[in-house]
Amino acid sequence: MLRLWLLLRLILGLMLGLMLLRLVLRRLMLMMLVMLIVLIVLMMLLRLMLLLARIELLRLARRIWLAHLRLVVAVVVALIGNIATHATAWLLLKVRLTLAKLFLRGGDQAKIMLGVLIIILGSDRIPGALRVTG
After folding, report:
1. Mean pLDDT in runs of 10 for the chain (134 residues)?
2. What residues does each domain of the chain span?
3. Backbone angles phi, psi at 110, to 5 degrees
4. Which helix or strand (DSSP H or E) is residue 134 part of?
5. What gap in Å lies between CA 94 and CA 99, rounded to an integer?
6. Cβ-count burial of 124 within 10 angstroms (0-12 exposed, 13-18 middle, 19+ buried)?
7. Quick one: pLDDT at residue 10?
8. How far, in Å, CA of 29 to CA of 54, rounded?
9. Which of 5, 76, 127, 128 could disulfide-link to 132, CB 3.0 to 4.6 Å?
10. Dihedrals φ, ψ of 132, to 5°?
C-alpha cells in the first residue's frame, strides 16, 4: 500500500510538474510574442524615422539645388543684360553716325525745304491742302 501511495504521489507530482511546465511555457511564449510585437513596432518606428530623415535630406538638397539654380539664373540674366546694354549702345552709336552722315551729305535740304514752301504757300490748292510735296 505504501508503494502504491508513493507511486500515486509520484504520478501526481509529475502531472503537477507537467502542468507547471505547461504554464511556464505558455507564459514564456506569451512573453516572446509580446517581445516580437514590441520589436516589430520598434522597427516600424525606426523605418519611419529614417523615412522622415530622408525626406528632410531631400528637402535640403532641393533647397540647395534651387539656390544654385537661382544663382545660375542671376548670372545668366546679368550676362544677357550686359550684352544687351553693349549691343544697344553699339546700335545707338551706329544710328547716330548714320543720321549724321545723312544730314551732312550735301545741300539737298535747302532744295527740299524750298519745294515744301512752294507747295504750301503756292497756288496749288490740292497738294497744299494735303501738304504733299511735289
Report:
1. 77 82 87 92 93 90 90 92 89 78 65 71 63 56
2. 2-103, 106-134
3. -65, -40
4. none
5. 9
6. middle
7. 79
8. 37
9. 127
10. -105, 130
